[in-house]
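Below is a concrete protein record.
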Amino acid sequence: MWPWIRKPLRWLSQRQCVLISKVHVQQLHSSSSEFTDTCYNGLYPGHIPTTPIQRALLAVGSGVAALRDPYRHDMVAVLGETTGHLALINLRDRMRNDPEGYTILTERPRIRLSTLDLSKMASLPDGSFGREYLRFLEDNHVTPDSRADVKFVDNEELAYVMQRYREVHDLLHTLLGMPTNMLGEVAVKWFEAAQTGLPMCALGAALGPLRLNASRLQSLFTSLGPWALQNGRRARCVLSIFYERRWEQNLEDLRQELNIEPPPVILSASNKRST
Protein backbone atom coordinates (compact mmCIF):
# COMPACT_ATOMS: atom_id res chain seq x y z
CA MET A 1 0.00 0.00 0.00
CA TRP A 2 1.20 3.55 -0.74
CA PRO A 3 3.42 4.92 2.11
CA TRP A 4 1.68 8.30 2.25
CA ILE A 5 -1.64 6.79 3.35
CA ARG A 6 -0.31 4.22 5.82
CA LYS A 7 -0.34 6.54 8.84
CA PRO A 8 -3.86 7.89 8.25
CA LEU A 9 -5.19 4.36 7.74
CA ARG A 10 -3.44 3.16 10.90
CA TRP A 11 -4.88 6.09 12.87
CA LEU A 12 -8.41 5.50 11.56
CA SER A 13 -8.15 1.80 12.32
CA GLN A 14 -7.08 2.55 15.90
CA ARG A 15 -9.94 5.05 16.32
CA GLN A 16 -12.39 2.44 15.03
CA CYS A 17 -11.18 -0.11 17.56
CA VAL A 18 -11.57 2.48 20.35
CA LEU A 19 -15.13 3.21 19.20
CA ILE A 20 -16.07 -0.46 19.24
CA SER A 21 -14.70 -0.70 22.78
CA LYS A 22 -16.76 2.33 23.83
CA VAL A 23 -19.90 0.80 22.33
CA HIS A 24 -19.30 -2.40 24.32
CA VAL A 25 -18.84 -0.34 27.50
CA GLN A 26 -22.07 1.56 26.83
CA GLN A 27 -23.87 -1.75 26.37
CA LEU A 28 -22.72 -2.94 29.78
CA HIS A 29 -23.60 0.31 31.56
CA SER A 30 -27.01 0.70 29.92
CA SER A 31 -28.23 -2.83 30.62
CA SER A 32 -30.99 -2.97 33.20
CA SER A 33 -31.92 -5.41 35.91
CA GLU A 34 -34.32 -7.02 33.43
CA PHE A 35 -31.44 -8.21 31.25
CA THR A 36 -31.60 -11.96 30.57
CA ASP A 37 -29.25 -14.53 29.06
CA THR A 38 -31.41 -14.93 25.97
CA CYS A 39 -31.82 -11.42 24.63
CA TYR A 40 -30.67 -7.81 24.86
CA ASN A 41 -33.33 -5.09 24.80
CA GLY A 42 -35.76 -7.62 23.32
CA LEU A 43 -33.78 -8.17 20.11
CA TYR A 44 -31.27 -11.05 20.10
CA PRO A 45 -28.25 -12.39 22.04
CA GLY A 46 -25.19 -10.19 21.66
CA HIS A 47 -27.04 -7.25 20.11
CA ILE A 48 -25.31 -3.88 20.61
CA PRO A 49 -27.63 -0.92 19.92
CA THR A 50 -25.97 2.10 18.30
CA THR A 51 -26.93 5.63 17.35
CA PRO A 52 -26.83 6.74 13.69
CA ILE A 53 -23.56 8.61 14.36
CA GLN A 54 -21.99 5.56 15.96
CA ARG A 55 -23.06 3.37 13.03
CA ALA A 56 -21.55 5.86 10.58
CA LEU A 57 -18.25 5.94 12.46
CA LEU A 58 -18.22 2.17 12.72
CA ALA A 59 -18.84 1.90 8.98
CA VAL A 60 -15.97 4.26 8.13
CA GLY A 61 -13.52 2.73 10.56
CA SER A 62 -14.29 -0.86 9.65
CA GLY A 63 -14.13 0.00 5.95
CA VAL A 64 -10.65 1.45 6.37
CA ALA A 65 -9.49 -1.56 8.38
CA ALA A 66 -10.95 -3.98 5.85
CA LEU A 67 -9.21 -2.10 3.04
CA ARG A 68 -5.87 -2.46 4.79
CA ASP A 69 -6.39 -6.17 5.39
CA PRO A 70 -9.26 -7.97 3.57
CA TYR A 71 -8.68 -10.98 5.84
CA ARG A 72 -9.79 -8.95 8.89
CA HIS A 73 -13.10 -10.76 8.93
CA ASP A 74 -14.16 -8.96 12.10
CA MET A 75 -13.91 -5.59 10.37
CA VAL A 76 -15.62 -6.88 7.23
CA ALA A 77 -18.43 -8.14 9.48
CA VAL A 78 -18.91 -4.74 11.15
CA LEU A 79 -18.90 -3.01 7.76
CA GLY A 80 -21.62 -5.32 6.48
CA GLU A 81 -23.83 -4.82 9.52
CA THR A 82 -23.59 -1.04 9.57
CA THR A 83 -24.19 -0.42 5.84
CA GLY A 84 -26.53 -3.20 4.73
CA HIS A 85 -29.98 -2.27 6.12
CA LEU A 86 -31.80 -1.71 2.82
CA ALA A 87 -30.17 -4.71 1.13
CA LEU A 88 -31.08 -6.92 4.10
CA ILE A 89 -34.73 -5.83 3.83
CA ASN A 90 -34.72 -6.79 0.15
CA LEU A 91 -33.10 -10.16 0.87
CA ARG A 92 -35.57 -10.82 3.70
CA ASP A 93 -38.49 -10.08 1.38
CA ARG A 94 -37.10 -12.38 -1.30
CA MET A 95 -36.80 -15.16 1.27
CA ARG A 96 -40.36 -14.57 2.51
CA ASN A 97 -41.66 -14.91 -1.05
CA ASP A 98 -39.89 -18.24 -1.60
CA PRO A 99 -41.38 -21.36 0.09
CA GLU A 100 -37.97 -22.75 0.98
CA GLY A 101 -36.70 -19.34 2.05
CA TYR A 102 -39.77 -18.82 4.23
CA THR A 103 -39.06 -22.14 5.94
CA ILE A 104 -35.52 -21.00 6.66
CA LEU A 105 -36.76 -17.75 8.21
CA THR A 106 -39.17 -19.76 10.33
CA GLU A 107 -36.83 -22.53 11.51
CA ARG A 108 -33.63 -20.40 11.74
CA PRO A 109 -31.05 -23.16 10.99
CA ARG A 110 -27.37 -22.46 11.72
CA ILE A 111 -24.37 -23.80 9.82
CA ARG A 112 -21.79 -24.64 12.49
CA LEU A 113 -19.52 -27.57 13.21
CA SER A 114 -21.94 -28.52 15.98
CA THR A 115 -24.78 -28.83 13.45
CA LEU A 116 -22.84 -30.68 10.73
CA ASP A 117 -22.43 -34.45 10.58
CA LEU A 118 -18.91 -34.48 9.14
CA SER A 119 -18.67 -38.28 9.19
CA LYS A 120 -21.81 -38.62 7.13
CA MET A 121 -20.67 -35.90 4.73
CA ALA A 122 -17.33 -37.67 4.29
CA SER A 123 -19.17 -40.86 3.33
CA LEU A 124 -21.13 -39.17 0.56
CA PRO A 125 -20.04 -39.85 -3.04
CA ASP A 126 -17.71 -37.52 -4.89
CA GLY A 127 -19.70 -34.88 -6.73
CA SER A 128 -22.38 -34.63 -4.07
CA PHE A 129 -22.85 -31.17 -2.58
CA GLY A 130 -22.06 -32.26 0.97
CA ARG A 131 -18.88 -34.10 0.00
CA GLU A 132 -17.62 -31.22 -2.13
CA TYR A 133 -18.37 -28.72 0.64
CA LEU A 134 -16.39 -30.82 3.11
CA ARG A 135 -13.56 -31.05 0.57
CA PHE A 136 -13.61 -27.26 0.27
CA LEU A 137 -13.29 -26.88 4.05
CA GLU A 138 -10.39 -29.34 4.16
CA ASP A 139 -8.50 -28.03 1.12
CA ASN A 140 -8.74 -24.40 2.19
CA HIS A 141 -8.30 -25.00 5.94
CA VAL A 142 -11.44 -23.09 6.91
CA THR A 143 -14.27 -23.77 9.33
CA PRO A 144 -17.88 -22.53 9.45
CA ASP A 145 -17.29 -21.57 13.09
CA SER A 146 -15.09 -18.67 11.97
CA ARG A 147 -18.16 -16.59 11.06
CA ALA A 148 -18.78 -13.91 13.68
CA ASP A 149 -22.17 -13.45 15.29
CA VAL A 150 -24.15 -10.38 14.25
CA LYS A 151 -24.12 -7.51 16.77
CA PHE A 152 -25.03 -4.17 15.16
CA VAL A 153 -28.20 -4.92 13.15
CA ASP A 154 -31.16 -3.32 14.94
CA ASN A 155 -33.78 -5.80 13.80
CA GLU A 156 -33.93 -9.41 14.94
CA GLU A 157 -35.11 -10.91 11.64
CA LEU A 158 -32.67 -8.87 9.56
CA ALA A 159 -29.90 -9.91 11.93
CA TYR A 160 -30.66 -13.54 11.13
CA VAL A 161 -30.61 -12.78 7.39
CA MET A 162 -27.14 -11.28 7.80
CA GLN A 163 -26.05 -14.29 9.88
CA ARG A 164 -27.38 -16.66 7.23
CA TYR A 165 -25.51 -14.75 4.52
CA ARG A 166 -22.26 -15.16 6.46
CA GLU A 167 -22.74 -18.86 7.06
CA VAL A 168 -23.72 -19.47 3.43
CA HIS A 169 -20.57 -17.73 2.13
CA ASP A 170 -18.41 -20.87 2.17
CA LEU A 171 -21.22 -22.81 0.51
CA LEU A 172 -21.11 -20.24 -2.30
CA HIS A 173 -17.41 -20.95 -2.70
CA THR A 174 -18.37 -24.59 -3.22
CA LEU A 175 -21.20 -23.80 -5.63
CA LEU A 176 -19.00 -21.43 -7.62
CA GLY A 177 -15.92 -23.64 -7.49
CA MET A 178 -13.79 -20.84 -6.03
CA PRO A 179 -10.95 -21.31 -3.49
CA THR A 180 -10.17 -18.79 -0.74
CA ASN A 181 -7.17 -17.14 -2.38
CA MET A 182 -7.56 -13.48 -3.32
CA LEU A 183 -8.74 -14.12 -6.87
CA GLY A 184 -11.32 -16.64 -5.67
CA GLU A 185 -12.56 -14.29 -2.95
CA VAL A 186 -12.90 -11.39 -5.40
CA ALA A 187 -14.85 -13.56 -7.85
CA VAL A 188 -17.22 -14.61 -5.06
CA LYS A 189 -17.61 -10.96 -4.00
CA TRP A 190 -18.55 -10.00 -7.58
CA PHE A 191 -21.22 -12.72 -7.51
CA GLU A 192 -22.45 -11.65 -4.06
CA ALA A 193 -22.56 -7.96 -5.04
CA ALA A 194 -24.81 -8.75 -8.00
CA GLN A 195 -26.89 -11.26 -6.01
CA THR A 196 -27.37 -9.46 -2.67
CA GLY A 197 -26.86 -5.74 -3.24
CA LEU A 198 -24.95 -5.50 0.04
CA PRO A 199 -22.65 -2.41 0.00
CA MET A 200 -19.93 -4.45 1.73
CA CYS A 201 -19.90 -6.87 -1.21
CA ALA A 202 -19.83 -4.03 -3.72
CA LEU A 203 -16.89 -2.45 -1.90
CA GLY A 204 -15.02 -5.75 -1.83
CA ALA A 205 -15.75 -6.28 -5.52
CA ALA A 206 -14.45 -2.80 -6.36
CA LEU A 207 -11.33 -2.78 -4.18
CA GLY A 208 -10.37 -6.44 -4.27
CA PRO A 209 -8.84 -6.24 -7.77
CA LEU A 210 -6.33 -3.68 -6.47
CA ARG A 211 -4.56 -6.56 -4.68
CA LEU A 212 -4.28 -8.78 -7.76
CA ASN A 213 -1.27 -9.02 -10.04
CA ALA A 214 -1.51 -8.44 -13.79
CA SER A 215 -2.16 -12.04 -14.82
CA ARG A 216 -4.93 -12.51 -12.24
CA LEU A 217 -6.47 -9.17 -13.16
CA GLN A 218 -6.66 -10.37 -16.74
CA SER A 219 -8.33 -13.59 -15.64
CA LEU A 220 -10.82 -11.62 -13.51
CA PHE A 221 -11.79 -9.07 -16.15
CA THR A 222 -11.89 -11.41 -19.14
CA SER A 223 -13.57 -14.50 -17.69
CA LEU A 224 -14.25 -14.83 -13.96
CA GLY A 225 -15.67 -11.35 -13.43
CA PRO A 226 -18.26 -11.36 -16.22
CA TRP A 227 -19.23 -14.93 -15.30
CA ALA A 228 -19.68 -14.01 -11.62
CA LEU A 229 -21.76 -10.91 -12.36
CA GLN A 230 -23.98 -12.66 -14.89
CA ASN A 231 -24.64 -15.61 -12.60
CA GLY A 232 -25.15 -13.41 -9.55
CA ARG A 233 -27.87 -11.44 -11.35
CA ARG A 234 -29.80 -14.37 -12.76
CA ALA A 235 -29.38 -17.01 -10.04
CA ARG A 236 -32.15 -17.87 -7.61
CA CYS A 237 -31.76 -16.18 -4.21
CA VAL A 238 -28.93 -18.17 -2.63
CA LEU A 239 -30.24 -17.47 0.87
CA SER A 240 -33.49 -19.25 0.06
CA ILE A 241 -31.90 -22.69 -0.22
CA PHE A 242 -32.07 -25.05 2.77
CA TYR A 243 -28.56 -26.35 2.15
CA GLU A 244 -28.62 -28.56 5.22
CA ARG A 245 -31.21 -30.70 3.40
CA ARG A 246 -29.25 -30.75 0.14
CA TRP A 247 -25.99 -32.48 1.16
CA GLU A 248 -26.80 -35.62 -0.83
CA GLN A 249 -27.80 -33.70 -3.96
CA ASN A 250 -25.39 -33.73 -6.90
CA LEU A 251 -23.47 -30.46 -7.07
CA GLU A 252 -24.08 -30.00 -10.80
CA ASP A 253 -27.81 -30.63 -10.34
CA LEU A 254 -27.92 -28.01 -7.57
CA ARG A 255 -26.11 -25.52 -9.79
CA GLN A 256 -28.66 -26.08 -12.54
CA GLU A 257 -31.52 -25.63 -10.08
CA LEU A 258 -30.03 -22.32 -8.94
CA ASN A 259 -29.24 -21.27 -12.52
CA ILE A 260 -25.49 -21.10 -11.82
CA GLU A 261 -23.05 -22.08 -14.55
CA PRO A 262 -19.80 -23.92 -13.72
CA PRO A 263 -16.75 -21.62 -13.47
CA PRO A 264 -14.92 -20.87 -16.73
CA VAL A 265 -11.56 -21.26 -14.97
CA ILE A 266 -10.53 -23.86 -12.40
CA LEU A 267 -8.51 -22.26 -9.59
CA SER A 268 -6.21 -24.09 -7.18
CA ALA A 269 -6.75 -23.89 -3.42
CA SER A 270 -3.01 -23.43 -2.86
CA ASN A 271 -1.36 -20.15 -1.91
CA LYS A 272 -4.35 -18.85 -0.05
CA ARG A 273 -3.08 -15.30 0.43
CA SER A 274 -1.21 -14.92 -2.80
CA THR A 275 -2.17 -12.08 -5.12
Notes: Residues 1-9, 21-40, 271-275 have pLDDT under 50 and may be disordered. The first helix runs from residue 6 to 30. The radius of gyration is 19 Å. The chain has twelve helices and no strands.
